Amino acid sequence: MPSAPILFDRHLARARLLRAASLPASIFLLEQVARELAERVAAVLRRFESAVDLGTPTDAVRRQLAQAGNIGTIIAANGVAGSFHQRTAGGGSRADALIVAADEEALPFRDGSLDLVMSALSLQFVGDLPGTLMQIRRALKPDGLLLAALVGGDSLSELRQSFAAAEAEVENGVSPRIIPFVDVRAAGSLLQRAGFALPVTDVDRITVRYPSPMALMHDLRAMGATNPMLERTRRPLRRATLRRMMEIYGERFADPDRRIRATFDIVWLSGWAPHGSQQKPLAPGAARTRLADALGVREHSAGERAGR
Question: What are the tens digits of pLDDT across the range 198-254?
Fold first, then answer.
């Protein structure tokens, strides 16, 4: 099987997460996603004895689940374990959990050892997402659950367009400034390819308003979410390009009060490790009730013309 192309500098991504750990917390988006994830877990009427919080850059998910009655042990698996986890995302008390250093692309868990894997705003930086999903599926026990949220779709389209226009105008060329994001339909296909049963994907669009593009980029830096692509330009950002980008952003994507808009599409993934008790589609020809009977109409053969 051909190896997946390497899109991201994983060492750089971890270094930026470590840098972000020392910056003032500005991660409301992660807090919002963590609350939604906790609500989705609570809606599942079963107990998960062993759960992994995979790659989430703070303890936001674990704090939201601290009072949940249907989760036993939570293991935090992160490439910067022991550093970023010292920072409490929302200012509250830190949620205790087992913490292990792990790369999302090389999971250290035995096959069939986990009941639940959760992840919030981390998997968008995984270069081999199909491979990671396959590893998660193998690590889950039969009827184990994956529930993850990642930045995807048309996220940061305003920033992407503004940078591209500014670079084309000032530097006569365009370099990748924003990472490529997975589409919600493609995400569903990846779950199926990884062998998950009952795969479901959906997307939440969140529009955030900022006083300026610089405030947006400050938030991205505080989340450790700046560009880690291998194909990124190594040249320092020119002041003229940055100034023109901010002008274009304000011209195209500002509200009447001059605050700018930033779009975040949160793509949700859920899937179950296959188990014999799960619902399965009927085999062709196995239906016991004719569609015509269910609809209360007369059935016509292929060559019969319906009367008026």
Answer: 999 999 999 999 999 999 988 887 765 565 544 556 577 789 999 999 999 999 999
Paired strand residues for 117: 52, 146
Q: In total, how many domains does the chain have?
A: 1
φ, ψ (nearest 5 deg) of residue 101: -80, 125
Query: Residue 101 is part of which domain span?
Result: 10-156+180-210+263-276
Per-residue CA distances from 14 to 25, 42, 125, 266 (Å)? 17, 31, 10, 22
- Residue 244 domain flag: no
CATH of the domain at 77: 3.40.50.150
d(CA 85, CA 21): 8
Q: Is 148 inside any structural domain?
A: yes
pTM here?
Answer: 0.78
Ranges assigned E (strand) in the chain:
48-54, 71-78, 98-101, 114-120, 140-152, 197-210, 260-272
